[in-house]
Amino acid sequence: MQTVDRPLALVETLRSRRQRLAQLFPQPAVLWSGGSSGRNFPANTYPFRASSHFLYFAGLPLEDAAIRLEAGKLQLFMDEATPASALWHGETPSRSEIAAAIGADDAYPLSELKNWAEGTATIAVQDAQTRLRQSHLLNRMLMPANAPQDLDAELANAIVALRSIHDELALAEIRRAISVSVAAHKAGMAATRTAKTEAHIRAAIEAVMIAHEMPPAYTSIVTIRGEVLHNAHSPHSLHSGDLLLADAGAETPTGWAADLTRTYPVSGRFLASQRAIYDVVLAAHDACIAAIQPEVEYREIHLIAARTIAAGLVDLGILRGNPTDLVEQDAHALFFPHGVGHLLGLDVHDMEDLGDRAGYAEGRGRSDRFGLCYLRLDRPLKAGMVVTIEPGFYQVPAILQDPQRRDRYRDMVNWERLAEFSDVRGIRIEDDVLVTDTGCEVLSADLPTHADEIEQLTQMQVRRTSRDTSD
Amino acid sequence: MQTVDRPLALVETLRSRRQRLAQLFPQPAVLWSGGSSGRNFPANTYPFRASSHFLYFAGLPLEDAAIRLEAGKLQLFMDEATPASALWHGETPSRSEIAAAIGADDAYPLSELKNWAEGTATIAVQDAQTRLRQSHLLNRMLMPANAPQDLDAELANAIVALRSIHDELALAEIRRAISVSVAAHKAGMAATRTAKTEAHIRAAIEAVMIAHEMPPAYTSIVTIRGEVLHNAHSPHSLHSGDLLLADAGAETPTGWAADLTRTYPVSGRFLASQRAIYDVVLAAHDACIAAIQPEVEYREIHLIAARTIAAGLVDLGILRGNPTDLVEQDAHALFFPHGVGHLLGLDVHDMEDLGDRAGYAEGRGRSDRFGLCYLRLDRPLKAGMVVTIEPGFYQVPAILQDPQRRDRYRDMVNWERLAEFSDVRGIRIEDDVLVTDTGCEVLSADLPTHADEIEQLTQMQVRRTSRDTSD
């Protein structure tokens, strides 16, 4: 992997990306990196994150920069650091040094961009200040990234085609993010039996990322209340009998993400009820991965997860009926209400700034079915795509206590039997999977999924120095 | 301290704050909390931080909420969570529960705010989306927070008067933030001798904050290149002979900040040259703290630091001349180019969103002197203020290699002698200090400053479990 980290590989990769862009979209395009946003006052900013589309073609997280792409050529627009900046932020590379590092054909101050902006396509960035500047320089209305018009929409389509299929450098970066995330999850597991609160485990996980100069790619979910799907806070104390759900992934300095979830017992041992459900979720996870290959519809992978979970819950006596029929009625979604996964790349939900343009094949849209509406990806798989596989089981009060749903699924659910699994609030198992020519590769295979191995990792309880914890 | 954490204390404190506001500013005011900002796509947001002015009067970090203050009354405007939100984010308190928790007199949906906004004063928040909504609802142009007009400027003045002098609840929160930050710095010191990179120490420091559910109040500076004053990255390997500068502070969940810096030897032992300069900086730190009491000008505290550093450098043979004269010529600023500190509160540079309105007494402005222009606070001190005291010594190439400066200070600097201190790149010692009726209290006194004690803490190298590290 070190070979692709050579600057030459970056230059070559970026050239190849823009040449492929030129084939799909021959018109000129300008992509902005965006600027940092003030948190509570202007000088106290959130850590800067460059726009993913910019990162894909510029390779470096430059702040307040823009690139113009046309016919395979790259023009870089950015200002040199001011002398005062050297006092506060140190010496930084010059524009020409950066231009050389990314193989730009030309480099100009930002003020020159106005002479090159007319008639170009673009994609709106996230920060509102830069969006205003985009609109001003292009001298036209700019729609949000999820609703581009005309040329901008064509550019978005071309970028989706490129970014969906990862090149060698992209995969090397994703593997780096996954490698650190695997170490982070193992540190979280090792911390579990001695940790007193969810936040202690979150600290153990994120410390590994910080030690590698990688921020979390998204807000970590580290919770004993796994049934709250996007639970951003970790206030609870841990007790024997709790299951800890940890959904956390690192982001490399050039923006590539990992996205991994494991669920493990605080005590180091699953209760029998927890183990039974865990194995149902794991069976769904394994069945999805076994089915992944080029041309398979991802929606079908989702339905495999749904049917496997339904079948497992029938075996446990929680659901009643034929698994295929239950899934057609969305009964699985009582316990597995979200989609089985999504694209992964520079964004943890890759290209979600473009709405469903990347996730849904042309002409397709969201289902209104309870069991399908949250599916983020509905396309035939292609070699070079990276997707997450993340089935789960949850007891969400807002779903299971809903009188209409209880009535509708009255005969399909054995509520008394379900009550015997009340110690299972939420379980999810998530891996990152590369579609290959012949099937797939689980990129995160170094992080075990089997319940026995999970128990072993949570029982390690190795005494470590701070350094070891952060390694 | 636990007594002030009772909900009743929050309600009473908030009532007292708005009654005092009504005395200073009798007109109605509306303060917005702001919304979260997308990082690389809208659903992947930066962690939400409510506006500090909102937090001061509303007490809770509510997202997309507003409060209206008039004559000591509090009206809360916020929407209830949607049913879908319960699936993704769990059950959240209702508007009326929140209204009760903060002692609101009335509570309404956000759509009602338009009926209450006319003629009110406000302060612009940081996020651009909310600023647009503020302007729209008030039906007028809204200047940035550092340039308010008319009623808004009067409101800002009243808020500065209130927020500058901390009440009991504010002080309890600041003490909480400092307590966690002291533990974090100690963990960083304990990690130093076994850490391989700056990032490993940063991880040890921030893990303690995360374990306490407190984010960093600002981007931590953890670097062996302390001469880069706001060095946000930590890529360097550590080597014996390096000094590690760590400037890091936690923020409580309701927004109150700590701000602490220590500088320590990677090897566990200062070199003689490093120890000599360290003791000069510490002498400046101690002299400032000894001089703090009500009515003393903070600018005078800065000059005490400057003169103490100048005197110490004369004693070491680095500067030549009389310390008072040297400071009048700004010779100290060759090595100590920043101000000695700033206000601390809900913001690490408290109320810096208002520009210098909080930091500078009315009628005063920034000096154009090299040795004073970066001073953030120029007011007489009052009991109840919390300020940082953070003198430093740096060898900044952009300053010391500048031909004009080398010429101007030709006779005041012994450049040959200075070369013997080349292993001292940057040293800063920073504490948080409460001005009391009779003098001051160093709120961060639990974190030692003496070089011998610093060496002991970096030599601890205790083998700890992950839990202990995070405690």
- Choose one word for the global shape of chain A: globular
- Uncertain residue segments of chain A: 1-5, 462-471
From the 3D structure, determine the CATH topology of the largest domain in chain A: Creatine Amidinohydrolase
> Largest sheet of chain A, order of strands side by side?
1-4-5-6
Mean pLDDT of chain A: 94
Oligomer: homodimer
Number of helices of chain A: 16
Q: How many domains make up the coordinates of chain A?
A: 2
Description:
Two copies of one chain form a homodimer. Chain A has 471 residues and is of the alpha+beta class. Chain A has two domains: 2-164, Creatine Amidinohydrolase, Chain A, domain 1; 168-470, Creatinase/methionine aminopeptidase superfamily (Creatine Amidinohydrolase). Chain A is built from 16 helices and 14 strands. Chain A has helices at 7-24, 52-58, 83-89, 95-102, 128-138, 150-164, 168-192, 198-211, 272-291, 298-315, 323-328, 397-400, 403-408, 415-419, 451-459, 466-470; strands at 29-32, 38-41, 44-45, 66-70, 73-77, 106-108, 221-223, 243-248, 260-265, 386-389, 392-394, 426-428, 431-435, 440-442. In chain A, the strands form five sheets. A four-stranded mixed β-sheet of chain A has the order 1-4-5-6. In chain A, strands 7-8-9 form a three-stranded antiparallel β-sheet. Chain A has a three-stranded antiparallel β-sheet with strand order 10-13-14, with helices on one face. In chain A, helix 1 (7-24) crosses helix 6 (150-164). Chain A is globular. Chains A and B meet through strand 2, strand 3, helix 3, helix 7 and helix 8 of A and strand 2, strand 3, helix 3, helix 7 and helix 8 of B.
